[in-house]
Amino acid sequence: MRFALSEDQTLLQDSLTKALADLSSLDRVRRFADGGEATAPDIWAGLSELGLPGLLVPEEHGGLGLGLLEAALAAEALGRVVAPTPFLGSAVLAPLALRLGGSDEQKRAWLPKLADGGATAGAAISEPIAGARDGAGVTAEGGKLTGKALFALDAMAADLLVVADRSGVLHLAAKADASEILPSIDATRRLTELTFRGAPAEALSSNQALDRLRDAAWVMIAADTLGACQTMLDRAVEYAKERKQFGRTIGSFQAVKHLCAEMAAELEPARALVWYAAYAFDNAPEEASLMAAHAKAHTSEIGRFIARTATEVHGGIGMTDLLGLHYWFKRIGQNRQLLGGPERVRELAARMQGLAA
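Above: the chain's sequence. Below: its structure in token form.
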């Protein structure tokens, strides 16, 4: 059996990659990173014209009704240009949460708005997945939320929040009582601290929704890392073909060839793993959680290797702001820890297989 992308899937990724070359150029990413913007509405508006926010929204609610594999291909393309977009919260986690546990009324109210980009959504699900810290954690009582959620995704300017309480139940909230951007190594993605002081919220009905959101988020983060790694590898190869030392391009030196070959050898199998994890989410539910964990943990490890090695190929210029390589380096580093570092994810994978208590 040959597992490969369909013609439509390849066209989707190629079209998005071409559009992002203009929408999320390095100059635009740098302006976002240096300017302190909460969002980049121009980039999201351009992607909305292509239908990206509606990838996972059912057709009856104005979306494309596609699967997580298509979303992973989009995430990979976004990772290639470290695009500052609310894709994970608005186009993946919120639509999935509504599909899994939303009422008909909630779906009618939010899915069409999310599908056309007219509304954006954020997700605060870190504590029950990656573990609470600094007294964080949200409790729900009487239709109201109280507590603090750290590392919320795409939440700073969101119209809708998907919030997980301490017990793992998901809730929809219009807004938090206070929000603050958290400092992080990746200036191209805003993480938020949300504070709730009795904020009204509506609980979603599915008991399995958080696990499914966790799996989807792990796959999307892995795909984003995959895209960022590909760009770092491509840029390292291009630089090795141009940079001359001792009268020769450095790409002709055996040591540099080995560095580039090792990066490619690590990256290519990871692509198949991420694609299969995304495919399993919709088509092999009995494997979905384990495959998502493997994809997240493995890309976290090879991401660190590729980020470091690509920077080494560039030599001293690799650390300069002028080149911009650090944006991909830092995105990969943040992805490594987001919603659980590789050690925690591997521990959860071991529990899924009965290999750990």
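The first strand starts at residue 121 and ends at 124.
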